[in-house]
Amino acid sequence: MEPFVTKSEAAQIVKVARTRAGLTWAALAEAIDRPAPWTVSALLGQHPVPKAEAEKVGDLLGLDAEVVEALQAQPTRAGIGDDLDDPTIYRFHEALAVYGPAIKELIHEEFGDGIMSAINFKLDVQRRPDPDGDRVVVTFDGKFLDYRW
Amino acid sequence: MEPFVTKSEAAQIVKVARTRAGLTWAALAEAIDRPAPWTVSALLGQHPVPKAEAEKVGDLLGLDAEVVEALQAQPTRAGIGDDLDDPTIYRFHEALAVYGPAIKELIHEEFGDGIMSAINFKLDVQRRPDPDGDRVVVTFDGKFLDYRW
Amino acid sequence: MEPFVTKSEAAQIVKVARTRAGLTWAALAEAIDRPAPWTVSALLGQHPVPKAEAEKVGDLLGLDAEVVEALQAQPTRAGIGDDLDDPTIYRFHEALAVYGPAIKELIHEEFGDGIMSAINFKLDVQRRPDPDGDRVVVTFDGKFLDYRW
Amino acid sequence: MEPFVTKSEAAQIVKVARTRAGLTWAALAEAIDRPAPWTVSALLGQHPVPKAEAEKVGDLLGLDAEVVEALQAQPTRAGIGDDLDDPTIYRFHEALAVYGPAIKELIHEEFGDGIMSAINFKLDVQRRPDPDGDRVVVTFDGKFLDYRW
Amino acid sequence: MEPFVTKSEAAQIVKVARTRAGLTWAALAEAIDRPAPWTVSALLGQHPVPKAEAEKVGDLLGLDAEVVEALQAQPTRAGIGDDLDDPTIYRFHEALAVYGPAIKELIHEEFGDGIMSAINFKLDVQRRPDPDGDRVVVTFDGKFLDYRW
Amino acid sequence: MEPFVTKSEAAQIVKVARTRAGLTWAALAEAIDRPAPWTVSALLGQHPVPKAEAEKVGDLLGLDAEVVEALQAQPTRAGIGDDLDDPTIYRFHEALAVYGPAIKELIHEEFGDGIMSAINFKLDVQRRPDPDGDRVVVTFDGKFLDYRW
Amino acid sequence: MEPFVTKSEAAQIVKVARTRAGLTWAALAEAIDRPAPWTVSALLGQHPVPKAEAEKVGDLLGLDAEVVEALQAQPTRAGIGDDLDDPTIYRFHEALAVYGPAIKELIHEEFGDGIMSAINFKLDVQRRPDPDGDRVVVTFDGKFLDYRW
Amino acid sequence: MEPFVTKSEAAQIVKVARTRAGLTWAALAEAIDRPAPWTVSALLGQHPVPKAEAEKVGDLLGLDAEVVEALQAQPTRAGIGDDLDDPTIYRFHEALAVYGPAIKELIHEEFGDGIMSAINFKLDVQRRPDPDGDRVVVTFDGKFLDYRW
Amino acid sequence: MEPFVTKSEAAQIVKVARTRAGLTWAALAEAIDRPAPWTVSALLGQHPVPKAEAEKVGDLLGLDAEVVEALQAQPTRAGIGDDLDDPTIYRFHEALAVYGPAIKELIHEEFGDGIMSAINFKLDVQRRPDPDGDRVVVTFDGKFLDYRW
Amino acid sequence: MEPFVTKSEAAQIVKVARTRAGLTWAALAEAIDRPAPWTVSALLGQHPVPKAEAEKVGDLLGLDAEVVEALQAQPTRAGIGDDLDDPTIYRFHEALAVYGPAIKELIHEEFGDGIMSAINFKLDVQRRPDPDGDRVVVTFDGKFLDYRW
C-alpha cells in the first residue's frame, strides 16, 4: 500500500511548514474563510478539514498529498491531560479549578439542571487593550442542554 | 480551644443554608455588592471573604460565628481534578482539550511568548437568548503576561 | 444551624430503608410515576428529585426531613472510576473498550462528525427470555449532536 | 524471517485503505456477511477475523498478505482508558458513571446476583428519526450470568 | 431511621468477633454447610449471605441485628488494587504478571477465543504435604465462555 | 557491533513464526520436553531459555541467531498492569479481587503467617469436560514460606 | 459487641504511649527479648505480636485491652507508596532506583535466576562511627530462592 | 552532526556485548579496579564513567566510539517505578514497605532527626553460605545527615 | 489512655489559634527566636519543635497540652503532591519544570556530579521593592553533596 | 517537505554537540550575552531562542540548519513530573514539599492573597564557598501578583 501519515504527524508538519512559509494562522484562516480558532484546531488535528479547505492549505504550505489526506480524516480527539502542564494552557485549567464549581452553580441557577454543550459550541480569542497591560479574552459559547429524559 | 470549622465544611453549610433561606446566589452577590462569579467561588472556599462581607452573608443565612470565621480564612485552593467528572464542569475541560492548543497558538501569534494570567483575572457567566436554544456564554478575561527575564 | 445530610449519605439511607420496607425499585418508580432507571439513579444521588416525588418517597420509606431535603439538592455527579471494578458494572466498560471505537466509526458513518448526547438521553434495562439463558438488554438512547461551530 | 505487521498497525492500514477505496463500513460488513459492529471492531483489531473473511477484505481493500495475516491473529484486547477522552466515546462512559449503579440495582432486582456477559454478547447501533433531532440508539445485549459456585 | 452498618464495617466486626469467639473459618463454614472459600469471602462482604446463614453466623458470633442485616445486602465488590501490596495476596498477582500471557495462549489453543468465567466459578485452597516444605495449592475453576455474537 | 533483538521483540517474532509454522504451543513444549505453561511463558520472555532448548525452538521455527540469543537472556519480568485489561487475563485478577482476602485468611488459618511462593512455584492449565459447558481449571502451586526472622 | 481498635489505630496509640512513658524502642525490644527492627515494625502493625509479648508491651505502656488485642491480630501489610515521600524513607527507595538493576545483575551472576526472599528475611540497622560523619548501615539479609518449577 | 547514542541505548548494548564476550560483571569491575556494584550501575547508565575506565571497557567489549562517549555522559538517573515489578527488585521495595517505618524510627532514636544519605553512599551485595539455603546479603551504607538549618 | 492529637490536627489548630490571637507568623518566630520559614514549617508539622519552643508557642496561642505534645513529635514529612495545585505553591513546581534541567546542568558544570542537600539546607523568603511591582525572592541554600562511593 | 527536527531532538543534539566541542554552558551563555540559566533552559527547549542567538550557537556547535530552526520554535513547555526522580532535581521538589506551605503562609502574610509569578521571573544558580562544604544557592525571583478581580 502507498504510505500514509497520521493526523498528529500532519499537525507537526503543518506547524513547521507554516513557519517556513512565513504565514500567520490568521492568514490561513482567512484563506479558507473560517474562524481562526476553528482553523488552528482543525489543522492541529482536532476536526476533519473538508476537502476543498484541506487542498487550499496544502497549496499554501506545499504539503504532500498524504498530509492533505490526513487533514481530512475523522479525528480521535486529544486527551485532556496531554498539554496540561504547558503554562499557557495550564492557566485555563487552573481557572476552572478555582471557578468551575461557581460556574456550575450559576448555570444551574440560571438554566436549571444541565450543561453547556462542547459540541454545539464556538470559541473566540481576542486581545483587549488595557492601560494596565493588554488582556487575553477567551469566550466559551455553547448551547445549553438540559437533562431531559 | 473553641471549636472551628474548615473552609470546605463552611462551603457545605453555605450551600444548604442558602437553599433553606430561599436566596439565590445572585441575591447574595447583590447584598455584598460583588460580581456573582466571585461571590459564589469565594463562598465555596476559593477566596478569602473580607470581614464585612462575611458577616453580611452570615446574617442573611444565619451562619454560626465559626462559619463566618472560616469564610475569611486564606484558602488552599481546590485541586484541578476534584470535580472534573461532573458533566457540567467536564465540558469546559473537554473544550480545553480540543481547543487548548489552538488558544495557545493564537495567544502566541497575537501577544508573543507568554500566558493569560489566572490571578489578575475575572470571569463572567451569561445567558444569551437564541432561537435554536439559549446559550451559555462564559468569558475568561486575564492580563497577558509575557515571559520576561 | 440545623443538621443536614449529603446526597451520598441520603443514597446509603435510601438503600437500607428500601430493603427494610420490603419495597422494590420498580414499586418506588411506579409510586412516583417515573421510569425505573431514572428513579433509581435519582434516589442514588445522580439527579435532583422534584419536591413532590421526594416527599412521596420519604413517606413510603419513612425518611427524615433532612434526607428528603438532600434528595432534592442539585448533585455533583459521580466519577467514572468510582464503581468501575464491580463486575456487574465493569462488563459495560469492558464492552465499550472492545466496541467503543466501532461505535464511533458507525456513528460517524451514519451521522457525520458528532456525538450521542448523554444529557438529552434515556436508558432502558430489560430482561429478554432466551432458551439458552435469559439476556440483559440495555438500551442507550441519546440525541445526535453534530460538531457545529 | 519475513516481515510482519501488528494488529494495531493493521487497523491503521485498514482505516486508510477503506477511505482510499471509497467503501463504507456497512459495505465491508455486507461483503463478508457479518453485522456491522462486529465487522468494524474485528477489522480494528478486537476480534480474530476468520481466514476467508480476512482474505475477502484484503481483496476489497488491496491489503498486503502480512496485513491479512495480522487480521486473523488472536488479539490482546484494547485497554479501557485508551480512547476514553474522545467525546464520541466519552459520552458512553459518562452515561455509565451516572446510570451504572442504577443498572446494577435493576439487574439485581430482576435477575438476582450476577452480571450481563460481555463475551456472550452482541451490540447494535441504530439511527432513530425524531422530529426534535435524530437519535443514536445503542443496544447492549448479553446473557445473564448468575454467581454460581 | 434506625442505625445501620455498611458491609465493610460488618466485615471488620466479623473478623474481631471470630477471633474473640475462638472459632476458625473452617468451623463457621461447616456450621452453615458451605465451602470455606465462599464462606470467608461472603462474610468479608463479597457475596450476599442468605438470611438463614447470616442469622446462624450471627448467633455463633454474637452479632447485632444490623450486622446480620448488612451481611445479607447485595455488595458492590472490592476493587482490584485494594489489598494488592499485601505480600500474601501480591504473590498471586505477580504470578499472573509472569504467567498470565501464557495462560491466555493456552486457553485460546485449547478452547478458542474466549475466557474463563469469574462468575460461574469456584475456587479451592488446599495444603499439600511435601518433604521440601508443604505447598499452597489454589485452584481456579470457571466455565469457559467463548466470544459468541 | 552486530545487531541484536530484545526479549520483547523476540516474543513478537516467536508468536508470528509459530503461527506461520502451523505448530501448537503444546508441540513446542513437547519438542523441548518441558511443561506447556513454562514453555509458553519462557518463549514470551518471562524466563531465560537454556541454550539447547532455545536452539531447538530456533530450528523448529526458523528463527535468526539473534532471536535465539535473546531467548536465552535473563529477563526483567513483565509489569502487573501490562495486559490487565484483556478480558481473558482480567477475569483472573477480578477473581483475586473478590477472593484474594479469603485466600489470605485461609492460608493464615492453615499455615500461619506467611505466603505462597511465586518463585518455587508451578502452574497448570487444564480443560475439564462438563455437561453444562467445559471448564478452565488453573492450578497455582507454590511452596509455603512463613515469616521467619 | 464490645468496641475494638484497628492495627493502625493501635500503632498510633503505641507511638504516643511510648513517648509519654519515656521508653526507647530499644528498651521495648529488650523487654520482650526480640531484635529491635522486628519489634518496632511489629508494634507499628506489620507483624502479629504473640500474646505474651503483646501483654508485656501493654503493661509497660499502659495500653487498653483492645489495643493489646489489636497487636496480636494478623496484619494486612502496608502499601509500598504509603510513606514513600518521607525523606528518611525515600532515600532507600532512591538508592534502589539507582542501584536496583545492578543488585539484580549481581544476584543473577552469583546465584542464577531467582530472588532474595523478603519473607525468610531479617534486617539490621546500625551506627558506624566515621571521622567524616557517622554512618547509617542497614543490612538486608534474605534467603536466596531460585525459580524452580 | 555525527551520530550518537543515548545512555540507555548504551546500557542495552553493554549487556548484549558482555554476554557475547563471555565476561562476568566481576571481571569487568576488576579490569577497571572498581567495586562491582558501582561498576554495574555505572555501565547501566546510573553514573558517569571516567574516560579511562570507559575506554578500558570499550576495548574489552568491542564497543563503538559513540557508546564509549555515552558511558561518560552525565546521567539523568532512573525513575523509582521503572523496574519495580521485576520480582528480584520488587522484594527490596516490599521489604521497605514492611520495615521502612521501623528503620525510620530506629534512625531517629539513634541519630536524631535526619536521613541516611543516598549520595555519600555505598552498597555491597554478598552471598552468605547457610545450611538452610545460601543468603543474599545487601548492605546500604550512607552518611547520616541531620536536619540542620 | 489519655487522648492525643496528630501533627496534622495540631497544624490545623495552630492556624486557627494564630488568627484568633491576632499574631503574625513573624511574631511567633521572633518569640521563639527562630527564622520565620523554619518556624512556620515546624508549626505546620514538618519539623519536631523542641520542648521549650513548643511550650512558648502553646502559651502564646492558648494551646492544649496534647497539641503542645504533638508539636514536639517526630514528623513523617508531607507528600510532594499534597498541595501541588494551590496556585501559590504550584508556581514554584512549574518553575522547576521549566528550569529544573537547567539547574541540574549548572550544578554539574560548577560542582561535578552530585546534588544540593535538602537536609543541610535553609530557605529564605523576602520582599524586594521594585517600581514595576514588588517581587517575591525565595532562596534555596543547601550544602553540595557529591556522589562519593 | 524538507526534514525537520523537534525541540526535544534539538536539545539532545545540543547536549552531545556541546560536549564534543568542549564548551561550557557558561561559555555559550557568554557568547550570546544572556544569563546562564536562561541560556541552558532555552537550549534545552524551554524558551524560543531568537534567530541571531540560535545561529550564533549553531555556528559554535556546528549544528544543522534544522536544529537551529527548532531552537527558534515556540515550545510546549515540559511536564512537571518528567525528571522528578533524578536526585539533583528531586531535592528541590522535596524542599517544596517540606517548606511549600510555609512559603505560602509567608507570602500571604507579607503581600496578601496572591502568588509569585513564574513568567515575570528569573532564577540564579550560584556557588557559595563554605568551610563545612560549599553550598548551592538557587534564587527564585518573581513579581508578586495579587488576586485582583
TrEMBL record, chains A, B, C, D, E, F, G, H, I, J:
TM spans (from-to): none
Keyword annotations from UniProtKB, A to Z: Lyase
Active site: 91, 94, 117
CDD domains the UniProt entry points to: Cyanase_C
Domain of life: Bacteria
Originating species: Kineosphaera limosa NBRC 100340
Enzyme class (EC, first level): lyase
Record EC number: 4.2.1.104
Domain Cyanate lyase C-terminal: 79-149
UniProt function note: Catalyzes the reaction of cyanate with bicarbonate to produce ammonia and carbon dioxide.
Gene Ontology MF terms: cyanate hydratase activity; DNA binding
Name of the protein in question: Cyanate hydratase
A matching Pfam family: Cyanate_lyase
Keyword Lyase annotated: yes
InterPro entries per the UniProt record, alphabetical: Cyanase, Cyanate_lyase_C, Cyanate_lyase_C_sf, CYNS_N, Lambda_DNA-bd_dom_sf
Gene3D superfamilies: Cyanate lyase, C-terminal domain, lambda repressor-like DNA-binding domains
Catalytic activity: cyanate + hydrogencarbonate + 3 H(+) = NH4(+) + 2 CO2
Keyword match NAD: no
Family under the similarity heading: Belongs to the cyanase family.
